[in-house]
Amino acid sequence: MCGIVGFTGRQDAKDFLLDGLFKLEYRGYDSAGVAVEQPKGGIEVIRRVGMVAELARAVKESDIAGKCGIGHTRWATHGAATENNAHPHIDCSGKIAVVHNGIIENYMELREELTAKGHTFRSDTDTEVIAHLIEECYEGDFVEATRKAISKLRGAYGVAAIHADHPGVIVVTRKDSPIVVASSVKGAFVASDTVAIVEHTRDVVYLDDDNIAVLNPDGHIDFIDADGNAVYPEPVHVEWDAEAAGRSGFPDFMLKEIYEQPRVIRDTLADRLVDGKISFPELESVGNLANDIDSVTIIGCGTSYHAGLIARQLIEKWARIPVSVEIASEFRYRNPIITPRTLVIAITQSGETADTLEAIKQSRGNGAKAVAITNVVGSRATRESDAVIYIKANMEVSVAATKSFLAQNAILAVLALYLAQERGAIPQDEVCKLYGEMQAIPSQIEWILHQTNDIKRCAKACYKAHSVMYIGRQFGDVTCKEGALKLKEISYVHAEAYAAGEIKHGPIALIDDTVPVVAIATKSSTYEKVISNIEEVKARGAKVVAVATEGDEHIKRYTDLVMYIPDIPEYFSPITASVPLQLFAREIAVLNGRDVDKPRNLAKSVTVE
Ligand code: M6R
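A: This is the predicted complex of the input protein with 5-amino-5-deoxy-1-O-phosphono-D-mannitol.
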């Protein structure tokens, strides 16, 4: 949820630190800070509440300078978003500075022990105990002190620390929280996300749990394990470059990422049909997956959960395997029925969502095979699962998931076809035909991206509403859930998504002329039913905006405004029908003056429960 950066090398550290923090701001953004070793000795810390820009202003106005430093952008968990609670945190001597992502579960007992030993705490955070613990364990060897200190921690952490008596050295460690380190001719870098580093080098090391990296100013990095033995991890070459991390002229990342979707779907679908058969080489290591199972359980949170709801319909329709879809944070506490004959599919863009990771662990503990569908190479989900299928979305910066959602849907549809093929549930020529139908999706999205004037008109008609209702049936029902989530999270307009046939059982009481209704009325087996439901809300005064199929003039009789999508079989319609809803939500957010990429109270990856 928070972001870590650090640099030691031959040039001033603050430029990299600030630039890195700006790039990581999407992970958390209620306060930020840096600690830099000063040329005359000692460490100077600057922290500010608010966005990284506030910190950048303060740093520029200061005379802070030095070639080694660490920085942090925070999303508060323990303690309010105040300057005192912002990272870096320092020990009593002021010589040790620490930044931390994650949660230290035993921080209270550690704090009490350390206080009893005379340490003085200045913040309400769990992080501060790490600085004091290192101080307590320090006997002249900074790395050893850190190693001893972390052995006392319970919970999840990514940590970077500096010590004024060890100039130029950054000690880094992690457990269940991502940390990446890299070296170049300029020096050595650490970050919680590759995006902060990729401009400097594309060869990075994803630190393993419990290992320690020691960064030196000449760029050399030493690695040791929890017992202090040297280890030699292999660097990973990152495929995407700094350009992919920029906005490329778009006003915000969300819009850029929406426009990337045709490319993302093309890449995600590429090379999946080999010699007339759907191919998933990623699954070879887990044996005859399709036939060794009685059921599928799909786990995810937020948008990824919605992708799971769509996948359920496809897997059940084509492969005829019963599927349950579970919100990861609920799944892990309810003792679900998972056996060695359950295939668990964990969907997570970031690969770092704490609840999803725990659900994977639990499922594997019950003997199930877990397949992760993720976007982030080297993320925890990739290490915790039996097999990994990458979506080809490339880095997604905007907090609102857009291109990753479409890519998840695309790959899950192909996976559903694969399961059907392997079980012989549908004829092979039908499998190929369905896969062939998907090839039209990228150009259909391009077509939608040319209809933005209609979408803007719809947004203009709705942006002042205090609440918007989304209705649809079957595939349209899930499309609504995702559309409503997008609207809520970036515009702060309340949105409710309901199966259209269900509204008369309660929610229709909400409807009047102040509550616009977005109806998914694309060509489908339930089209007529949806029209009836539209009539019901119209009769209560609602303004109705429909997502409909290109060429459907009939729909205009029942609705006030229409956003069209090209004709597509209903089982693939969530992929294309989600696009106008993404643009609609973004436009409403813009009209309401929201920060589209950084909605309040949210963070891109939710690494705490
Ligand atoms: O990284 P994950 O896919 O595991 O994240 C799950 C949710 O936090 C995420 O999809 C969230 O709902 C999105 N910000 C919604 O746009």
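The pocket of 5-amino-5-deoxy-1-O-phosphono-D-mannitol is lined by residues 301-304, 348-350, 353, 356, 399-401, 485, 489, 605-606 (CB under 6 Å). The longest strand covers residues 96-104.
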